[in-house]
Design a protein that fits this description.
mainly alpha; 8 helices
Length: 169
């Protein structure tokens, strides 16, 4: 998100929540707010918005936005070690096997776990998990025959990906 769009995005999301309350779109609005606060480097507000997104998603279990993965990704990519217990609990409480059908979700799930393992000093575990994340990022086809590009990892040439490659050896 461009920085100049962050404040309008927050205002729109908050307006939606005022009008619609905690309906089925609330989790997505909280997640959009978290992304906007991330753009503004307001990590405390972003963390709070991710927590609200996860809680809203729990209220509507048939509407999956994978917000616990976004929360884990955010904490892992920002090295927020004090949040890791909460992140791991959110991952355990919210993950369903079907969530990992898409390579992008596998990449974020295993990537976050690898970074957390590395940050807490479990390098052997981090290495094994990083390989899973890298395998997901290299998949050329998604799970659906008619939509082979759906859910693929795009734009993984960043520092996070490079760190996964270093961890995997």
């Amino acid at each position: 998100m461009k920085p100049e769009n962050a404040l309008p995005a927050i205002a729109l999301a908050q307006r939606f929540l005022q009008l619609q309350g905690e309906g089925i779109g609330a989790a997505q609005m909280h997640a959009a707010t978290a992304q906007a606060f991330t753009t503004l480097s307001d990590t405390a507000a972003a963390l709070d918005a991710y927590r609200r997104a996860i809680e809203s998603e729990r209220k509507h279990p048939n509407v999956r936005g994978y917000h616990y993965l976004a929360f884990a990704w955010f904490a892992a990519t920002h090295g927020m070690t004090t949040q890791y217990d909460e992140v791991l609990a959110a991952m355990e409480q919210n993950k369903e096997d079907r969530d990992l059908i898409f390579p992008i979700n596998q990449y974020r799930y295993f990537g976050a776990l690898a970074m957390i393992a590395a940050d807490v000093g479990d390098i052997d575990q981090a290495k094994r998990i990083a390989k899973n994340a890298l395998d997901a990022s290299s998949q050329a086809r998604g799970p659906f025959h008619r939509y082979p590009e759906l859910g693929l990892v795009r734009g993984s040439a960043d520092e996070f990906h490079a760190r996964l490659e270093r961890l995997a050896g």
